[in-house]
């Protein structure tokens, strides 16, 4: 049995570059152009991307694709799958394979205590006793649930039935495919950033996934990423 406090995000394939945005946008005024021509005037391309982002001309940001492999606790995917427009998902199935005993336990840096009322609250660090309680309670619960799961499987119970005893702290994995526009919508809601015009208060576990995805995307489309931040992290 393995207890994990982090998530995994890998970029497994992509067709995504700033030039995709410029190419898609300029076809409306200049017709079809070669990608080589677009690279000849990088400052003009930067200005165009900033204009598109600022004035929320969103469709040019859809002509690209990124596929991520994500391994995280099931509780993350239950939030993730609320993002439907511009996303495709394939998650591992507990009906067809035996689920492995990898479970989420918050690290010491994860703030544990919620203060304030719904809609007006904040999280603060827990004390040593609270972290000890969380760790021991989660690990003990995980052990009992996985033992029950294994007991049913050994007795011949179908995987799709036996999995019902497993908690949302169990790790799952999926492929998630999106374009830059759908990713920006995701990031605007699932990250907390001082540059954001509209504040967001994501659960830390999905924010951990979002931060890793953003870093990978920023490497592919740095001009688009910079324009996103300059525009208050509001998706076009």
Distinctive features:
single chain, 236 residues, Gyrase A, domain 2, four-stranded antiparallel sheet, two-stranded parallel ribbon, 19% strand, flavoprotein, methyltransferase
Q: Find the count of extended strands (DSSP E, 2+ residues).
A: 8
Helix/strand structural class:
alpha+beta
Low-confidence stretches: none
Largest sheet: 4 strands, antiparallel
What is the helical fraction, as a range of percent? 40-55%
What are the secondary-structure elements, in order, as H or E? EEHHHEHEEEEHHEHHH
CATH C-level category = Alpha Beta
CATH topology: Gyrase A, domain 2
Number of helices: 9
How many discrete structural domains? 1
Quaternary structure:
single chain
Question: What amount of the residues lies in strands?
Answer: 15-25%
CATH architecture name: 2-Layer Sandwich
Shape descriptor: globular
- Report the span from N to C terminus: 44 Å
**Strand order in space, largest sheet:** 2-3-8-4
Walk me through the structure.
- The chain has 236 residues and is an alpha+beta fold.
- Helix content is 45%, strand content 19%.
- It has helices at residues 18-30, 35-39, 42-54, 74-80, 128-154, 159-162, 180-190, 204-220, 222-230, and strands spanning 2-4, 8-15, 65-73, 87-91, 102-104, 113-117, 120-124, 171-178.
- The protein has one domain (2-230): Gyrase A, domain 2 (2-Layer Sandwich), CATH 3.30.1360.
- It is globular and about 65 Å long.
- The strands form 3 sheets. It has a 4-stranded antiparallel sheet. Strands 1-5 form a two-stranded parallel ribbon.
- α1 crosses α3 (42-54) and α8 crosses α9.
- The mean pLDDT is 93.
